[in-house]
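The pair is quoted verbatim underneath.

:::
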Amino acid sequence: MVKETECCEAVEIHEELLKKVNATMPEETELYDLAELFKVFGDSTRIRILFVLFEAEVCVCDLAMVLNMTQSAISHQLRILKTNKLVKSRREGKSIFYSLADEHVRSIIAQGREHIEED
């Protein structure tokens, strides 16, 4: 059974509230960028990669082994994470090591976990 969304019984516009909201609303481009960032977190493989990177800086070979995936599949996901500034890389000889871009990534995931664990 689908529950219907509750609505107001009468139309009443609260002008002061709307002024406050409009004054603090970010620009459309910022809202778009924020929505795009959250889409990146919408893939469980990328979340799994981030959890590995919470523990250590690793190369694609290590990620592929621990996540039981191909290096190609891991590389594809890392490219998305890197494009969105969630991971960074560094070369050491023939290997490229990946790590979290900054502590914001850990914070975003931690807050998401807190949210889903609420009663």
In short: The domain at 15-117 is CATH 1.10.10.10 (Arc Repressor Mutant, subunit A).
